[in-house]
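SAMPLE LOG
Freezer: B-3
Tube label: C17
Construct: single chain, 360 aa
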Amino acid sequence: MLEKLPALKIGRYCPKYPLIQGGMGVLISGPNLAGAVAAQGGIGTLATVGIGMATMTCNVNNFFRKNVEALKSYVAKAREKAKDGILAANCMCALQDYEQQVRAVCEAGIDIIISGAGLPLKLPELTKDFPNVALVPIVSSLKAASIIVRRWMKHYSRLPDAFVVETPNAAGGHLGASTIEQAQDPSLSLDTVVPQLVSWLREMKLKIPVIAAGGIFDRKDMLHAFELGASGVQMGTRFAACAEGDAADGFKQAYLNAKKEDVVLINSPCGLPGRALRSPMVEQYLRGEDRHDPCIADCLAHCVYRRTHKTFCIARAMVKALQGNWEEGLFFCGSNVWRVNKIQSVAEIFADLFENRQPA
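STRUCTURE (predicted):
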């Protein structure tokens, strides 16, 4: 058993505890949750996807402008609650307004950008005017990490400040795999990829911390990740249902009601597999029934629904989930959602994870 926790350093930022709260859209990880986690000594993460939709003030014609406005406002709100803690923004490469979102959170004073749903190959270029912003790609394999290192060094003479290794075997939401079958591939597990990446970085003489994500729920999971060589962990699902979580009570109740068999893998309209609860809307989709909702945001760079009206409008479905609408919502979740059996505060979750454990 580890007597001391690893010291996590991401760029110039050193949290008290080596824990990142995962970015969960639409507004599931908003300013209240991100600020509370940062204030507690972890890294609080604001998910940038669809914040304009969550305000209920946007439409397909003004979505991108409203999203930027809301992002800057919500970074400021999170900062007020963070008490000098560290704040990150999770920016998805798959979004149409990815570049605008990155610029907006940098201008708003975010500390760290965590970026996945594709390889963030141009992220150093987008953030060149903000040298204090740490850059953290999300990867699911050593191959993806090596591509990013080589491309960033060749074009920008810049290394990532950390890597989040997120296993599609257990993580919630959009997964770092091209197919549902690949998302279940054990070769993409944390037990395989974290040691591989840690060893490769050591061989390359690169001091880049690795953060384990996907399936992290309790202290045992966390300590196992550290034994694999991770310098930190990222946790999403457990925080989504906590007292400070930004979602409606109905969203949290869906997590409380969840059983292991309620978790399914689906093909998202953006072309990536995702993990979610088997809600009535998801059941309809799995039966192959088409929906006829309008596209409300034009949010994805690649969207099957916008082009063919097959699958569903993911923006609408995620807003419905945020509101707690079980019938029409898409409730993304990790594989351990069935272990959520009570609403805890952020402080209680930190106590469960770190009680009697001293930071390095």
